[in-house]
């Protein structure tokens, strides 16, 4: 009787168990660490695999795909973003690429709103003042921030996450919701969002949330020229990708009070060194890329990446198919 060989899957990190449970009938090898796999280890471990379960910290380029060889059918990333994968090289080799859309929408949208409020209301400065014994008698003009009520909010990228942010911000009584994207989206009407060109959005918004992907079109879209056109009271929030902002220009803009404050969950580079000049600024709050850090999201992301692999093995459509 012919023996059917088990399909081989390489997983580039320890990931939440629900995804691993789904793959139990395959031959799964894991980079058994919480730290990112070094590129040379990745190259050593991929030859002959049928599927690669990877993360956004792994560079999946032609060299990795060549090392994997002709069995490789699918690269499934446990992330929404896929800028770490060379899509064109995968396409050339007929390798399907899958991501994990939807399952982290709520966690990232919640974090975006949290970061927005932390930043507009200067909450971390308040916490630090208490810890450092700087809390004196009540002062009328101490640690004053800006409120959302009657403000104009701009969203760059009204996709699932941008829409999630918009829905959460509406009850704050904002004056207007503007958005800019590669195209107009139908559900903008649900939240009363108005499509505007990029220039109008940056000039008119008091708060801007970057919720888009990093693409050649969005790379360093926020730079010196743009900061000069923004309002001086503007607050910029980025939970999309760090590369959308030119960080040296952001530093100058915050130092020169061209804009009021920034809240970043994503930076360029990542991790941002503790000595980076942005870290020293009181009006810049930086989080370590933790938008989807909830157990709900991470378990679902792991499951979705695994399901995507199984779907490809079974010749079905995957949940997150990157084209
Ligand atoms: C993603 O999924 O791309 C996020 O940036 C990490 O959760």
* N-to-C series of helices and strands: EHEHEHEHEHHEHEEHEHEHEEHE
The low-pLDDT segments are: none
Portion of residues in helices?
Answer: 25-40%
Envelope shape: elongated
Assembly type: single chain
In CATH terms, the superfamily of the largest domain is NAD(P)-binding Rossmann-like Domain
Task: Provide a compact summary of the structure.
The protein is α/β, with parallel strands linked by helices and 323 residues long. The chain contains 11 helices and 13 strands. Strands 8-7-6-9-10-11-12 form a 7-stranded parallel β-sheet, with helices on both faces. A 6-stranded mixed β-sheet has the order 2-1-3-4-5-13.
List keywords for this structure.
single chain; 323 residues; alpha/beta; Rossmann fold; 2 domains; 7-stranded parallel beta sheet; 6-stranded mixed beta sheet; binds (2R)-2,3-dihydroxypropanoic acid
